[in-house]
Predict the structure.
Amino acid sequence: MNAEQKRKANEVQKKFRQGLLQAVAVLDSDVNFALEQWQKAPDSQFWRRTLLRCCCASAEGTLSLLKQITPVCAEFFGVSLTDSDMKIVTECRTYIEAGVTKTKPAFLPFRDNLKETFKVFAKAHTVQPAVNCSTPGFADLCETFELRNRLMHPKTVFDLEVNDKALDGADRGLKWFKESLVQLLKDCGEKLPFSTKAN
């Protein structure tokens, strides 16, 4: 490995350790704290809503972090990301209006966001994603996000209720997400000249 390759490897390693692994640990600690509080007061709708929101923040935040390090990894492996890939990674689309180039947000629905983020992250590492989105866990996670959206944009007071079934689904969905993430990082990490495990 020459000096330039070492520099790039160090940059990727720093993004993995500080940008991804440490931030994911913070998101996980939020979920764990909300879970502990809900277990102390299982009838509390506040802690039910908070736990569900924390589960969604953990998954959505992790996807955002994966996007942040994707271009650095792609550069390290010499992978060219397409305009479509960059639209997913930056969550922006470029357009021309009256001869002026502008950008605007381009957010995908959660279901597509997860699939496409995992796909482009794997592409940046020259691996094929092995994420199984046909399992009940993936469906549970997507349903959890639909409920989170109702909580954030309620039409009636009943939209603010989180029942046991919803919490069970959120638990299964987040477990599926974490297992899928671990597999993705394992597959991609095998291509890197350092360990992707947290110290």
Q: What stands out?
A: The helical segments are 3-40, 45-77, 83-90, 110-124, 136-152, 164-189. Residues 3-78+109-189 form one domain. The beta strands are 92-97, 100-105. The two ends are 24 Å apart (CA to CA).
